[in-house]
Amino acid sequence: MMNAPTQAAITVGGGVGINIGNGGGGDDGGVWFGGGININNNPTPSGPSVSKLNNAYTALQAWKSAITDDPLGVIKTWNGSDVCSYKGVFCSVDSSNEPFVVAIDLNHGNLQGTLVKELSFLTDITIFHLNSNRFSGTVPDTFNDLSSLQELDLSGNYFSGSFPMVTLYIPNLVYLDLRFNNFSGTIPEDLFYKRLDAIFLNNNQFEGELPSNIGNSPASVINLANNKFIGNIPASFGFMRSKLKEILFLNNQLTGCIPQSVGLFSEMQVFDVSHNSLMGHLPDTMSCMSDIEVLNLAHNELSGVLPDIVCSLRSLMNFTVAYNFFSGFGQECSKSFYRDVGFDFSLNCLPGRDMQRPQPQCNVIPGSGLSCLRIPSPQPLVCGALFENLNPNVTPSSSPSP
């Protein structure tokens, strides 16, 4: 749902990038050069930057030796000491007009190989993108030395093993993309304490229960889709009132209820829990998700009556509840047919509606004995008071943190 800000601007073999990335990492001057075209006409540098470029040369030559297949000829340009002329390698200049490597972008390079520990010599690099290659193995523990790194995109490769814990110790990382790999095992709680703006873990083999502190994350986008997560969405989800705008849980093995705390995400735009085994009624607090545009609840075992207060959300553009056990909906939901809202309610248990489940399937509603937590709230629901009503640690007279 969210694209890396550099993805369209830097390509393999590109020329000049101007102020690309989330801040550029220090005094890089905002202008990048390299990536296969040597436009550096400065005199041969001396002093500290020689050491930086020498370190970069050592790192890239070590990595080159670990790349076993290069059908597009990307690393054929990786010869000589002028690393700023290497394809996919971008440089900038410091306040003394001396060059250093600031980014590597080898997206869609179709390279095969592994990462090497010497890449940690690139201490000034801010962007490291390897989307759509054939790299395998693990992420070297030395990556915690990449003190300037802000964006790490390893998506679309064959990396494996447990969650790469070293990524939690890269101090300035704000964008972590591990999707479409073969990582497995559980994900650590510390991931959701780290100050990341985007977390993409979808399409791996991660499993186990979701950490209870997932709502603590300051990220605006979290994608956990297409894994093997089990258990409930934590009841504490949302209590930190984060600025989360998109979260995707689809195609896992989640059970239990949709927690009432989901309503605390008043800035949420995309909420997708489809293709799980969630049960029970929808929480009324969903009516507080005033910015929601895509709400996908399809292919679960949810039941009850669809609340009108959910169907009337003003920003809603796509609302999907297909393949559940809902037994009715009110006037506002009926009006969705006549608004610009994609409303799919097929294969439920709605009397008098077409394309519903056969009646025998509706005689026994899954999870009918499930007791979903419902903390009393003012009637009608007052979204501004929702935080105090849901969070037992906040008294009615106190004010939530901004």
Automatic annotation (TrEMBL):
Recorded coiled-coil stretches: none
Cellular localization per UniProt: Secreted, Cell wall
SUPFAM superfamilies: L domain-like
Protein name: Cell wall hydroxyproline-rich glycoprotein
Boundaries of every Leucine-rich repeat-containing N-terminal plant-type domain copy: 54-92
Keywords on record: Cell wall, Cell wall biogenesis/degradation, Glycoprotein, Hydroxylation, Leucine-rich repeat, Repeat, Secreted, Signal
Keyword hit for Signal: yes
Gene Ontology biological process terms in this record: cell wall organization
InterPro entries listed in its UniProt record: Leu-rich_rpt, LRR_dom_sf, LRR_extensin-like_regulator, LRR_N_plant-typ
